[in-house]
Design brief:
Elements lengths: L4 H29 L2 H22 L5 H19 L5 H12 L5 H23 L6 H11 L5 H8 L3 H18 L8 H23 L3 E2 L5 H17 L4 H14 L25 H16 L6 H14 L8 H14 L3 H15 L1 H10 L11 H12 L3 H14 L1 E2 H18 L7 H9 L6 H18 L10 H12 L4 H20 L26 H7 L7 H13 L3 H5 L6 E2 L4 E3 L5 E3 L2 H11 L36 H12 L10
Parallel strand pairs: 1-2
Antiparallel strand pairs: 3-4, 4-5
Family: Belongs to the sigma-70 factor family. ECF subfamily.
Keywords: DNA-binding, Sigma factor, Transcription, Transcription regulation
Protein name: RNA polymerase sigma factor
Length: 667
């Protein structure tokens, strides 16, 4: 049976209202009853009432006040039902029952009058230092984030019973300790505030760099931490560290879109496309840090970390990063927060500012720290520094150790790839065979499937004629020329030149890695190909294309980009949304140079992106069938459609103009 549309809308409304209003409602009930567990149960009862009534009666004009009123009545009923309640509770129930409810506006005004203090009190209660870090996170997301148990479990990759037990234990501990529903004062306030900030940052860090699982990030957790942080900043505007944490999270969140590649693989900070950093979040981070400084007082750990993030945000390129300033800030941070993890980050800054030896000396002093035992970033950082020092065999062992320690699948993959790269670099060049070099050449991530197929034909013939076990340094240009003469002497010029291009690419690739100094294609001349008899389209017909409103924006944008950029069709079709620099009117496909376009293309691209953050720029009309799944990099994660193929693009152009794309001459 199909659920009625009104019912579905009401259920969605209940979910949204609960996430926005649950903290206010529970906080108000805790103020009335003094019991966190009971307050949440009564709020959940009100939620069930909404699920039962709203599909029939419709969503009230003020759903938050409706839920609060129902919760209040449930609280009165609960107090009346108690058989052994003290006289004070009876009097409280009488007062609540006889107190006039007033109008809905008056109820909402009363809630707003105390909601800030109530939510702040609830935040301090749920983050009480007596609770374990895991329990604080679970209780905070449950009470303040409005997340269900299954949502919390899914976010942290644990079972639902585990999360439920943490929440129950946390409530029991708070009840046993008799934690008052109040904002602490004096030294206790500073300690509790530190706990609140720690919980929020723990949630953010788990989203920013997931500790386990198949994904590198969980952006929903980052957004939830930002929401809680902004809420706390509004409730405690005079706390510098609160604004410092907001600044830190805003600045780090600005890099989220650039932290993964087309296939979801992690992208290191110095390799990120900074044109994809969110400038709005960066400006918000700057403003939050300014508010933190204006609040006065000594510089705390979150303010200092935000200042470090500012140094990265201000650098337009990785080379412009002021590492000396970052190292100085870490020096101050170590005095404020002398933890081994901060020391490890300081080692990275020292290495970038003053050389890898300086960083490695500090990392080696941290090897015996009990807190860092089993922490995968220690061998990972050490491996990076050893690579910079040319100690590849030691670096390989460190990367393999880091891969064994991490529980995050994408990170483990990257670490193992780096270990293999170090193993190749550490191996004597004379031992590398033609077969090994050819296999590594074809396994490059920047080659598309069609290019790999073409190159494999050439490399297979070379390996068959010269032998798989021949040392790469023993291969000469003369030997390659003999293979060409035997294999492709009678081939067409285009075929000859295609195989020659594959050899030249292989030769350049091996030369870049110091494995080969000779140009293997030196003995193979390029053959002249007959000039194409295809005449280019006449300029008036080309100009008329951009004015045809019967054409889809995708086709017009594709053809105009080809016309304005003079780029190859393969490179243009390979563009991804995350690799666009819209402000600079340019984009870069994996493994290619920047493609620049003009204002005409710039006007059409936003229609293609339409809010998408990842995936191919030019998409096909339909989703692929289950038997023809494309490569992950060719599938849009947001629409489920695949990348537009060259064949389809050629067909669409021929149907519209009667010409081929090669006739679309650039200006």
């Amino acid at each position: 049976m199909i659920e009625p549309v009104m019912s579905r809308d009401a259920h969605r409304a209940v979910d949204e209202v609960w996430k926005m209003e649950s903290a206010r409602i529970i906080a108000g009930l805790v103020r009335m009853l003094g019991d966190v567990g009971l307050a949440e149960e009564l709020a959940q009862d009100a939620l069930l009432a909404a699920l039962e009534r709203w599909p029939d009666s419709g969503v009230p004009d003020n759903p938050g006040a409706w839920l609060m009123a129902v919760s209040k009545r449930r609280a009165i009923d609960h107090l009346r039902r108690g058989e052994r309640l003290e006289r004070g509770h009876e009097q409280l129930a009488h007062e609540l029952a006889t107190r006039p409810d007033g109008t809905e506006a008056e109820t909402d005004a009363a809630l707003d009058d105390e909601v800030g203090d109530d939510v702040l009190r609830l935040m301090f209660v749920s983050c009480h230092p007596a609770l374990s870090a895991e329990s604080r996170v679970a209780l905070t997301l449950r009470l303040l984030g409005g997340l269900r148990t299954d949502e919390i479990a899914r976010a942290f990759l644990v079972s639902e019973p585990t999360v439920a037990q943490r929440v129950v234990r946390a409530k029991r501990t708070l009840a046993e300790l008799g934690v008052p529903f109040e904002v602490p004062t004096g030294p206790d306030r500073a300690a509790r505030l530190s706990s609140v900030l720690e919980v929020i940052y723990l949630v953010f860090n788990e989203g920013y760099a997931a500790s386990a699982g198949d994904g590198w990030m969980r952006q929903d957790l980052c957004q939830e931490a930002l929401r809680l942080g902004r809420l706390l900043a509004g409730l405690a505007p005079g706390e510098a560290e609160v604004h410092g944490l907001i600044a830190l999270m805003e600045l780090q969140a600005s890099r989220l879109a650039a932290r993964t590649g087309p296939s979801g693989e992690p992208v290191a900070l110095h390799e990120q496309n900074r044109g994809r950093w969110d400038q709005l979040l960066i400006r918000r981070g700057f403003a939050a840090l300014l508010r933190a400084r204006q609040s006065g007082g000594p510089l705390g750990p979150y303010v200092l970390q935000a200042a470090i993030a500012v140094c990265h945000a201000r650098a337009r390129t990785a080379e412009e990063t002021d590492w000396a300033q970052i190292a100085a800030l870490y020096e101050t941070l170590v005095r404020v927060l002398p933890t081994p993890v901060v020391q490890l980050n300081r080692a990275v800054a020292l290495a970038m500012a003053y050389g890898p030896e300086a960083g490695l000396a500090l990392v080696d002093t941290l090897a015996a720290e009990p807190a860092l035992k089993g922490y995968h970033r220690v061998p990972s950082v050490r491996g990076d520094l050893l690579v910079r020092l040319g100690r590849h065999e030691e670096a390989r062992r460190e990367f393999e150790r880091a891969a064994a320690l991490t529980l995050n699948v994408p990170e483990r993959t990257i670490l193992l790839e780096r270990a293999q790269t170090c193993a190749d670099a550490a191996r004597p060049e004379s031992a590398v065979t033609l077969a090994e070099a050819a296999s590594a050449f074809l396994a490059r991530a920047d080659l598309d499937a069609a290019t790999v197929r073409s190159y494999r034909q050439t490399m297979s013939r070379l390996r068959r004629d010269l032998g798989d076990d021949i040392p790469l340094r023993g291969v000469t240009a003369g030997q390659v020329a003999e293979v060409f003469a035997a294999a492709w002497e009678s081939a067409a010029a285009a075929t000859w030149n295609r195989h020659r291009g594959a050899v030249r690419s292989f030769s350049c690739w091996t030369a870049d890695r110091g494995r080969l100094g000779e140009d293997l294609a030196a003995g193979i001349g390029r053959r002249p190909e007959p000039r194409s008899r295809t005449r280019p389209m006449e300029p008036p017909r080309v100009e008329a294309l951009w004015k045809r409103q019967d054409l889809a924006p995708r086709e017009r944008a594709l053809w105009l980009m080809l016309h304005e950029s003079a780029a190859g069709i393969g490179s243009v079709l390979a563009l991804n949304v995350e690799d666009l620099d819209l402000a600079g009117m340019r984009g870069r496909a994996p493994g290619s140079r920047w493609i620049h376009w003009r204002s005409g293309t710039a006007e059409l691209i936003p229609q293609l992106v339409a809010g998408r953050r990842r995936g191919p720029l030019f998409l096909s009309e339909r989703r692929p069938g289950p038997g023809r799944r494309p490569a992950p990099g060719d599938l849009c994660p947001e629409t489920g459609r695949r990348r537009l193929s060259y064949e389809r693009a050629e067909y669409l152009f021929k149907r519209a103009t009667g010409h081929t794309l090669h006739q679309l001459r650039s200006r």
